[in-house]
Structure formats: structure tokens, C-alpha cells
Amino acid sequence: VAAAAAATESSAVRNKRGLSSSAVAAPRQQHEAVASSYVMQQSSKDDQCIPQHFSTMTTEDCPAGHIFDHSVYQSTIITEFNLTCEASWETDAAQSTFFAGQLVGCFLFGILADRNGRRIVILVNLLLMAITGIATAMSPDMITFTVMRFLNAATAAGVFQTAYVLGLEMVGPGYRVPCSMAGQYVFALGELVLGVLGMQFRGWRMLQLMISAPLVGGIFYWCIVPESPRWLQTQGKHYEVTKLLRRIAMVNGKALPESLLSTSTGDIQNVTPRSPSLTRDRAETEQSDYGAATLQDSSDLNLSHRRGSSNSNHLRQRSSTTKDPERLINSYMEPPENMIDLLKTPLLCLRLAVMIFIWMVTTAVYYGISLHTAELGGSDTGPNKPYITFILSALMELPGYTLAIIMQVTIGRKPALALSLLLAGLSCSGAGFVYEQSPGHALMATLIGKVGITSAFGIIYLYTTEVFPTSSRNTVLGLCSTMGRLGGMVAPFSDKLKVFYPPLPLLVFGCASVIAAGAALVQPETKGTKLPATISDALAIGGRRRAPLSLVAVGSDDYDQTDSLLPDLENNAQDRVL
């Protein structure tokens, strides 16, 4: 449903054909061509510049209004709000505002999901998405429509990326590929549903209501969607983790290890301090505040994170006399890591920069190929042509996602991403070279390129979540997606390059994809690895362990409990690690 709502823009602003009461209203491009008093006409082959090559035509308003062609669309924002001639720029503004909403939503809700949890962000955004979608369908004017589309795009982006991260954090390594690609298949399915609904409901208001009203059912997700156990673990909410694992174990008919059961009764055995040791001064301060805990020396407070350790048992015994043992423990825990800590780590900053570049190229090429493929649909102007073209474009994504699954399972994430980008790059370059000599072969090469770039699009979502830690995973994914949207906003302007050389857009897409394929090779391989919980875990993926600048070094074992608290999520998949 989120995919259908996000794709509504392509159906809402398609109809730009209008008839005035006295003459045919020229398309926007023609208006721009004759805006001046003297406009250069098509020049002859000898490139002469003579008066006969100029025209003195001017445009005139249509005082009697417009009569629109309704053979394809019953109603659009063009016909209802009369966005013709001098007002035609408002359709482009609405499109840009929609992308701006996605930019804001990807980044903003990524931060909120890392700070407040995945579940609350998904549920709130589902309801906001339904409200703004319905409000869009009831917009009385263009300003209201544009504002509601901005908010709708922001909430849709927040729902998709946060739900994607939550799904991956609920499973182990063996199920990440099918889980992530299932989301991509459903996205393509949403586009197919949108195309079919568009053929049945030719009015944009009814179509918007059809894809927005079902989202009201998101209120019932409160009883279905759980919080991410990995996020809870990084926040020190061990009681909630164990409670959630009990629920998962009950549904799956599994039994939790006895070592985890004490957490549910309030035992602090599994509390993991972020700092390896505590100072006597802080300990004595807390002792004076509570007046109950007898602390012998600082060595007694060297809390080990390992289950069953003597220090852990010692603290557990003494904490029984403390008025508030949970507060005592939490006072010695370092604050959770965040995006600022990640940016203090040079290696992770480099990986983030490379990933952002790959996202921008992938998104720009993906939308660019889609735009250029639509131009090759033939000269048929039947009433169903735009819908059929849209549906076929969505169908082309299915083999791309299938290719992504096969390559990720067999050769790993990094080579799969590099090969997908390389396939797209070589195909687009080949299409550019034969663009003028053999349009048919150019179309075939472009379609192959669409398969390759779709595969890359499916891989980068999973790859990004596996490279960066839980503490900032949603923020990083939101940042990458935001920068990717910037690439998508640039894609429509690639058509302007045809003025210099018709195949130039395809050649640019090809070169950019090949460069991105090379950049992907510097990233670490994540196949078979566990999702990193901390910055230290993320550094270990590439075999590099270096503390972030100005950040207390966290031992490599500080979050071993992440896996011990999630045995069924990780260990049950050992027989089929992908």
C-alpha cells in the first residue's frame, strides 16, 4: 500500500493535453519555444542564418477557458485546477514538493526510529499517511494538494524504511536475504495494483482514496507489530527483550534457555554496562545517596557482561539491599551510541560516504532508465497506453529482484552489488552506442540495464543495514535514502542532454554505474555476519577494530549478549547462512 501511495504522483499529473474553446492549446514545451517575439526555426543543413529561418508567432491566452480531452483520464489535477499555459509550472512544483517530502521523511523518521524505537514510528506514520492521503483526495485547491502531498510523501518514506529495518532486525543471518527481497517484491506488487486500479478509476480523487483509505487499518497493527529486540537491547531494556523473546518462543513452539529467564523476574544478571569499570568516587557518591550498598573497593564494581561471572553474581547479591538497584546499575552505564559517535569514526565515515555515492547513482539511473524506457513505448495513443506502460515497467522489476536474491546467496553482498551496477552500466553504454543505428537493440539493452539497476536497488537496502550498527542503522538508512532521492530528482533533467547528443543520457548513466560498481568493491563483505550492535561490531565486519575519535573504546565483547539474548533469531538459521 505504501508503494501504491508513493507512486500516485505518476498517475495524478499525467494529463497535459488540453483544447481551448477556439484553438488547440499548445503543450508547455511549445509555449516556451515561442515565448519571445523572434524564435529560431529549424535551420537548414548549410547552417545559414537568414530571416526566413525566424518566426514572429506569439502565444495568446484562452479567455473562453479550456475544453479538456477526457479520453484517457476522467479528471486530473491539470483539469480540475486548470494548470495550463502560465500555470503549468505548478505541476512541476507539485512533483518536486513530493520528492522534497520524501527527503525530509527519510532523514527525520530515521533519526526518530533510532531514538524512540521502530514500532512507534511505523504505527504513527501509518495513521498520518492515511490522514494525509485522504486529505489529498479532498484538496479544494492546488496549495492544499501540494502541502498534503508533501506530508504524505514524508510519512510514506518513514513507514517503508523503518518497517524494512524492523523486519531485518527480527531475523537471523540466514533469513535476511529472503526477508529483505520480500519487501521489494511487495513494493513491485503495489505498483502493479496501482496500475490496475488506475485503469478502473480514471479520476485522480477516487484513485487517491482507494490507495489511502485501507491505511486506516494500520491502527490494528498496534497489537501485531512488536518492537525490535535488537533496538531494545541497545537501549538496555533487557526485561522487554526477554518478554518479547518469550512471546516469539511461544508462537514458534521454542523454549528459551534458562539463563535468560532470570531477567524477566527483575534480576539484573543480564544488564550490560557500557563502561568496563567504575571509579570509586562515583561508587561512593551513589552509596551515600542510597545509604544501603556496601562497596569495598573499585574492583568490586568491575562489572562483567558475561553471564555467570563472579563480579556479576557479587553485584546481584549486594543489589538486594539497595533501594533502587536498577537505578544504581543504569547510573554506571554509558549513554547509548548515536549518529555523532559514528561520525567520529573515520573508517565508518568513509564507508558511509561511499554508500551515499552508490545510493545517488543507483537512484538516478533507476529513475532515468524508467523515464527513457517510457519514450520507447511506440506511437499508440490508446486510452490504456499510460497504464499498460506503467504496469510493464513494474513487471520488469521482478527479474531484477530475483537476480539479486540469487547473487546474494551465492557470491555475497559486495560482488552482487558490484556486478548489478556493472550490468546496468554496460547495458546503458551499449544502448547509447547503438541508439541511432538500431533502436530495437537499444531498447533491449536498456531493458537489461533496468534489470541490473533494479537488482542493485534491492541489494543496497540490505547492504546498508548490515554494514552499520543498530544504534544508528535507521538514521544511516534514512540519510542514504535521502541522498538517493536527490539523485532521483536529477534524473528527469538528464533528458536535456539530448540537445547536445541524443544518446548522451544513456552514456552518462552507463559511466556512472560503472564507477559506482568500482566503489562498491571497497566496502566490506557482510554475507553470513551478524547485524552489528555497536560501532565496535561494525568495525569488526571488515576486520578493523579502531575506537572512534574522542570516544571511549568499547570492548569487542561488550555486546555479545545481543546474540545470547536472541538465540532463536540467529542460531536457528546456522544451517542455511546466506
Automatic annotation (TrEMBL):
Its main location: membrane. It holds the Pfam family MFS_1. It is a multi-pass membrane protein. SUPFAM superfamilies: MFS general substrate transporter. Residues 265-327 are annotated as: Disordered. It is found in: Membrane. GO terms for cellular component: membrane. One of its GO terms (molecular function) is transmembrane transporter activity. Residues 1-528 form the Major facilitator superfamily (MFS) profile domain. Keywords: Membrane, Transmembrane, Transmembrane helix. Residues 265-278, 309-320 have a biased composition (Polar residues). InterPro entries: MFS, MFS_dom, MFS_trans_sf. The chain crosses the membrane at residues 120-138, 150-171, 183-201, 207-225, 348-367, 387-409, 416-435, 441-463, 475-494, 500-522. Gene3D superfamilies: MFS general substrate transporter like domains (1.20.1250.20). It comes from the Eukaryota. This is Solute carrier family 22 member 24-like. It comes from Hirondellea gigas. The lineage of its organism: Eukaryota, Metazoa, Ecdysozoa, Arthropoda, Crustacea.
